[in-house]
Amino acid sequence: MITEDRAVYRAASNENLFGVSAQVTTSLQRALANIYRYPDPGATLLREAIAAKLHITPDEVMVGSGSAELISLLIRVFCRPFLESAVLSVAPTYPLYQAEAEALGVQYTVAPLNSSFHFDIDSLLAKVTPQTRLCFISNPNNPTGTCLTQAQLVRLLHELPPQVILVLDEAYIEFAAAPDIADALPLLEQRPNLVVLRTFSKAYGLASLRVGYMLASRELLRQVALVKQPYTVNQLAQVAAQTALQDEDFLHQTLQATAAGKAHLQELLDFVGVQWWPSEGNFVLADAGTPAQPIVAQLLQQGVLVRETSDAHAFRITIGPKDHQDYLYRQLQTILAPEAVWEHPALAQILRTGYTLAQGNAAASEEALHQLASVASSTGSPEERIALAFARAFHAKLAADENVYAGNLYSSTFGAMDMISAFGVLIRQTPLVTFGHLFSNLAILEATANSPEIHILDLGIGAGLQWLHLLEMLASRAGGAPKVRITGVDIPAAEGAPESRLIETGERLQQHAAQLGINFSYTYLAGRLEDVYLQDLYFAPSETLVANAAFTLHHLPDQLLGQPDQRDRVLQQLKQLQPKIFTLTEPDSEHNNLHLVPRLRESLRHYYTVFDVLDTVLPPQLPERQVIEQEFFGREIINVISCEGTARVERHERNAAWQRRLTRTGFSPFALTMLPLQLVDYLQLHENFTLVENGAGYSLCWKGTPVVAATAWVSATSL
Predict the structure, then answer these.
(1) Is residue 120 a contact partner of residue 159, using CB atoms and an 8 Å limit?
(2) Residue 122 to residues 25, 435, 664, 670: CA-CA distances in angstroms?
(3) Going by C-beta distance under 8 Å and a sequence separation of 6 or more, which residues neighbour residue 69?
(4) Residue 161, preceding bond cis, omega within 30 degrees?
(5) Which helix (H) or strand (E) holds 77?
(6) Which residues, 6 or more positions from 121, have their beta carbon under 8 angstroms from its beta carbon?
(7) Phi and psi for 33 in degrees, rounded to 5?
(8) 317: helix, coil or strand?
């Protein structure tokens, strides 16, 4: 393995890879003659130079040993007592805010960014509590590169309580070119609770010398100065920073080289099928549709250092010289080659076909699809059967008729009895659906243990099979069964009366409840969740309300397709209802936020895992298996691969993304006491299955790969 000091491309730390000003190195050579002297403890000349450049006064500037010292000082000064204070920020962001807060025992709260990694000001303000003392905003944000707008800054300053100091960490501000990025400097004099942090480590190329500075009111800086140690910035660092400020030509060259390098890197990532997000920093956040850690490790072996992030699938790349980026591109080509991602020829051919389609060459695409079809089969190995499903998806993509495949089961050409029989096999003989049902039922059972009346709001109730088991558990409850009411919401039936399927579901549940001796009632609403206003439903004050959504919410469009974000809207309505518990089950895979090639890699990993499960737990000649594979999951694959925009309705998100969304919209994980052993005992899981805690529930994994995540939540306001 190549060590860090011998790396070809050091793209992990957002250093200025275009070097340092020649004037700086010259000034350092001259300053070496005075290294026997103590540095100026107040960095007076540097503060004056910064003030002159920014048109403020020197007593509104404090210099520190990088931004890190200043962040630590702010928390130490303004978060007292530590155990009764809180720091607020976003996620993902610069991890030092959390590390410094938690090291002192200060509570750290986050308001996650939205699906496009932009700031959600409503969520941020909603997270403010009487204990909040500091709100850190990295602008542009590290690692996403997104920025706070001027309007958002003004709103934050207007609506944050006076005790909350807003800290804008502008480490990458010199690189930003967005016309509406927040400009805090003109507001400093008016806002005593505004702080701006900047650094010489990035654009100025002085990372090893550790020089940062803080801009704030005189009174605020006076309080910080009371605890600040002297001599934290050595004299060489002060001299280098002063010279760097003066060499505007070098800064201009750096910014031009970074902008050109960023455009080149984005083009290379497009060629190799790696998703990137627009960035105002000297870095790009990337997602190849595969776990990041193996990519990071393989790049390191070839002398390329990139940075893993808090997201297990995303990695950050610092902009560098063209030859370094070209080298990175060649390594990614090798790492992401079809035969490198998948050893099995059929799986590799699926990727090869998708890569070819993405290049837009019709003749080459037809040939690649022909080769894929030659290894596809509806009755062969899991690899051959998944090849058939993807061949159908690629065919639909080439046909460019998105209306042919609607991506939901009700459009299937199989007969109703075939579908019912296959779904019964899926429910009875695999845990792919029942795992989420059982987790939710056990969680609801725990949350309502002492409730005499329970009202279940089920978003996407389908046939209602989940509730048969819960009714049985409630019937055996010590002290007698509670009164139960279920409100089922689902899309209208494709044929006949819109509410016909919902009525059948109610009759099934009513009959089962009667056999169990449970006082039961049922209401329904036939409509798309996008069109439903949950507050119009009736919930009796005497009832304990619980809510559930199993394999439903991913069909809702989010802000990537337009405003309002329908997923957020439904979750916000649920939050207002304040259910005792909200249980969510979703596939753990990203088919919402990725472009075609990374989405192909992600979907192949997910659905091949599903087909491997089915191959293991179902008899090979079972007729229902083909329906499950090529209709239930095959139609999902067709929609995920062949459709874009609003036509793509199978928009799954990874569990981490769902958890960020739930947190952002005002939910917190429900504190469950049940152990995974209960789930294992009920499900009788195959040895290749494992249950892994995910922070809000459990993920069902097959051979280590997450397939389905089930989580439980409570409205933060009802804690």
Answers:
(1) no
(2) 47, 34, 9, 23
(3) 212, 232
(4) no
(5) helix 66-78
(6) 152, 155, 156
(7) -65, -20
(8) strand
Q: Which amino acid is at 519?
A: N
Residues 6 or more apart whose CB falls under 8 angstroms from that of 149 comprise: 180, 181, 182
pLDDT interval class at 402 (50, 70, 90): very low
Tokens of 376: 């596809």
pLDDT of residue 407: 46
Other C-beta atoms closer than 10 Å to the C-beta of 354 total: 27
pLDDT in tens, 602-624: 999 999 999 999 999 999 889 99
The span from the CA of 503 to the CA of 315, in Å, is 49
The H-or-E segment that residue 286 falls in is strand 283-287
* Per-residue tokens: 648: 């793509």
First to last CA, the chain: 49
Maximum alpha-carbon separation in the chain? 94
* Cα 641 from chain centre: 21
Strand partners, 139: none
What CA–CA distance (Å, rounded) separates 554 from 567?
8
Using DSSP, state whether 108 is helix, strand or coil: strand
Q: What are phi and psi of 608, to 5 degrees?
A: -65, -35
In order of their start, the domains of the chain are 4-14+250-336 (3.90.1150.10), 22-246 (3.40.640.10), 340-405 (no CATH), 430-594+647-718 (3.40.50.150)
Residues 6+ apart with CB under 8 A from 367: none
HSE of 325, CA atoms in CB hemisphere, 13 A = 24
- Round to whole Å and give the CA distance between 90 and 485: 39
Helix, strand or coil for residue 311?
A: coil
* Sequence letter at residue 124: L
Measure the CA dihedral 459/465/470/471, to 10°.
110
The amino acid occupying position 645 is G
Angle of helix 566-577 relative to helix 655-664, nearest 10 degrees, comes to: 60
* Parallel, antiparallel or unpaired: strands 581-587 and 544-550: parallel
- Phi–psi pair at 380, nearest 5 degrees: -85, -145
DSSP 633: I
Give the position of tokens 């394999």.
Answer: 551
Q: How far is CA 278 from the centre of its chain?
A: 16
Q: In a 3-state reduction of DSSP, which class is residue 296?
A: helix
How many CB atoms are located within 10 Å of the residue 368 CB? Answer: 21
pLDDT (tens digit, 9 = 90+) per residue, 36-51?
A: 999 999 999 999 999 9
Which of helix, strand or coil describes residue 210?
coil
Q: What's the pLDDT at 401?
A: 59
Q: Report, in this order, helix, strand and coil percent for the chain, each rounded to 5.
A: 50, 15, 35
Per-residue burial over 572-586, b if 16 or more Cβ lie within 10 Å, else e, is: bbbbebebbbbbbbb
* Whole-angstrom distance, CA of residue 49 vs CA of residue 66: 17
What residue type is assigned to position 405 of the chain? Answer: Y
DSSP 17-45: TT---HHHHHHHHHHGGGTTSPP-TT-HH
- Residue-wise pLDDT tens digits, 651-710: 999 999 999 999 999 999 999 887 778 888 889 999 999 999 999 999 999 999 999 999
* pLDDT (tens digit per residue) in 147-178: 999 999 999 999 999 999 999 999 999 999 99
d(CA 674, CA 528): 34
CB neighbour class for 366 (10 Å; exposed up to 12, middle 13-18, buried from 19): middle
Beta strands in 436-554, from DSSP E residues, in sequence order = 453-459, 483-490, 520-526, 544-550
Cα–Cα distance, 351 to 332 (Å, whole number): 15
- The C-alpha atoms of residue 39 and residue 424 are separated, in whole angstroms, by 77
The answer to whether the CB of 74 falls within 8 A of the CB of 134 is: yes
Question: For residues 149 and 182, what is the distance between their CA atoms, to the nearest angstrom?
Answer: 5
Q: What are the backbone dihedrals phi and psi of residue 697, each rounded to the nearest 5 degrees, phi first?
A: 170, -135
- Rounded (10°) CA dihedral 152, 156, 158, 164: -170
